[in-house]
Amino acid sequence: MEDQMHPIRPLQCSKCGYSFQPESLLYYEELQKQVITEAKIAYGSEFLGEEALAREEGHWRRKEVFQERENEFWEEYGAYASTRWKEILQELNEFEFRDAYAALGLEASFKSVAQYRKDVLSRFDSLAERMRFWRAANHYFIYEHLLEGGFFGLDVERTAKDFGRLRTRFVVFHLPMDESLELVRAEWIGHFVKKGKEEQHFLLRQISVLTDELSRLKQKNLSLVRRIEAMKADVAELEKKLAASYQTIEQMKQERREAPRNPDDVRKIRELKQWVSELIEEIKRLRPQQEEEVVEQAEHLVEEWTDDSPSQREEEEALLNVLKGKVVGIIGGDRKAETTSSYPCHVLFHHGRTRNPDFERVLKDSDILVVLTQFVSHITMWETKAYAFEHEKPIYFLKGLNLRKLLTEVAKLEQQEKNLLRQE
Fold first, then answer.
1. Helix H or strand E segment including 51
2. 322 to each of 151, 395, 402, how far by Cα in Å?
3. Crossing angle of the two packed helices 94-103 and 127-137, in degrees rounded to 10
4. Are 210 and 190 a contacting pair, CB within 8 Å?
5. Is residue 194 a contact partner of residue 174, using CB atoms and an 8 Å limit?
């Protein structure tokens, strides 16, 4: 399992379409139809960059690091066990006695752990003999349970229950580990050592307190993730309502062209505008300060006329005169310094990613508004649309960045609007 990489992606409800972050990873055994293990996702406790690479490298080098101090470790471990010989033998499992006797070439037909302990106490008297037996008896514990299983997912409290507190205490403090994994050791100490009367236990208790605080912060991070998910759901619901209100306003605008407004229609439109304004303010409050990610920005396109015939140029020049004397505000897209003096109208630009005073100025000073739908967010598009409706300014939603083509398209639409009004 340590070789597996699991990208964390949002889950989506099949009924309402709402996306939310998962809370845990489940390993499911398909044949037995049962969950093997569950791992909570600790949002906010991730390791990034060089620190993450160092921890990963230390994890993969754990066996190599242990081998560098292997003999020293076994000598210290054997001496530690010898001073607590009778007590520490109580922690050995039956299979560990059996494996040790087999490794030492000793025959045994004992039927219980008690018989093994009695034989060990009488058979191994000297320090060298005890250390030799102890290394053989702890082969599985050290090489399989600890080194083979890895350190990141080790449950020290469960290990103490399965292999004994004396043995677990020693490896928690003395198992050779890469420096990048010392924080892992600190967590082990914090979970394992909870009390003690000696002076050195003061520091251990402090580590325990800090470990508990770390666990509390992880829970707090998870709670914040859930709150963010709830706020995202609220914003999505408000955006749906906002879209529905714009649709209603557009429908009423179409109806206005067909028949004169009556006082009730005027009142309803005023109420809808007020509602739209309140929805926009609510979305601003709920949405984080950063603007939602806008589609990737295109490079500035330089105007080229190599493909246009002289007659086409003349037609465009005549059409652009429809915009003479007007101010056209273009929202969306990053633009380099661009000359607009060759056009009969004045052109204002704003990228639309932030609604700052420059954005408000472009909206206010423009006679005609153009939104480049490829380069702005929904909230920017809707706010521009709301402003245009409220102040009765024409607004067009176009694609592309070439300024002459954009202005030509706006001139065509303006001309069509004038023709329609004449027919009415």
1. helix 49-60
2. 74, 16, 19
3. 120
4. yes
5. no
Q: Is the pTM of this model over 0.85?
A: no
Helix (H, G, I), strand (E, B) or coil at 66: helix
In a 13 Å sphere around the CA of 8, the CA atoms on its Cβ side amount to 13
Token pair for 149: 């299983």
* Percent of the chain residues past pLDDT 70, beyond the cut: 77
Q: 272-278, long-range: CB within 8 Å, 24+ apart, which pairs?
A: 272/245, 272/248, 273/249, 273/386, 273/389, 273/390, 275/245, 276/242, 276/245, 276/246, 276/249, 276/386, 277/386
Residue ranges with strand state E in 263-372: 327-331, 346-350, 368-372
Mean of pLDDT over the chain: 80
Amino acid identity, residue 36?
A: I
Task: Calculate the dihedral angle through the C-alpha atoms of 16, 22, 26, 31, rounding to the nearest 10 degrees.
Answer: 20
Q: Do the Cβ atoms of 122 and 135 come closer than 8 Å? A: no
